[in-house]
Specification:
mainly beta; 58% strand; 117 residues; globular; four-stranded antiparallel beta sheet; seven-stranded mixed beta sheet
Length: 117
């Protein structure tokens, strides 16, 4: 089993910044990608950003230019730097890990991000 632990959420004013971190522990699976999803109240969980084993990154259109994903897949760590935060970024942010070559995915417990206007 793989455990994901997120940290760095909190309350920030609009225009501010937060940095989320996620560390994986447990079984030494080969990772294909790690990333972040978010779920706002009453809405479906949606992808935010991801980084693959090759280092390629993807971002949701709503966060491009404001959020930056980084990390070390080999060390099983991924970060999300969030700048110019908006109230609509308020959500629970979840770390996700995709196991390489399989459909196995693992999720963290989530960390709350609240952006006040």
């Amino acid at each position: 089993q793989v455990q994901l632990v997120e940290s760095g959420g909190g309350l920030v004013q609009a225009g501010g910044s937060l940095r989320l971190s996620c560390a994986a522990s447990g079984s030494p699976v080969t990772i294909g990608a790690m990333g972040w999803y978010r779920q706002a109240p009453g809405k479906q969980r949606e992808p935010v950003a991801s980084i693959s084993l090759s280092g390629s990154t993807n971002y949701a259109d709503s966060v491009k230019g404001r959020f930056t994903i980084s990390g070390d897949i080999i060390k099983r760590i991924v970060n999300l730097q969030m700048n110019s935060l908006k109230p609509e970024d308020t959500a629970v942010y979840y770390c996700k890990l995709d196991r390489y070559g399989t459909r196995d995915t693992y999720w963290g417990q989530g960390t709350q991000v609240t952006v006040s206007s």
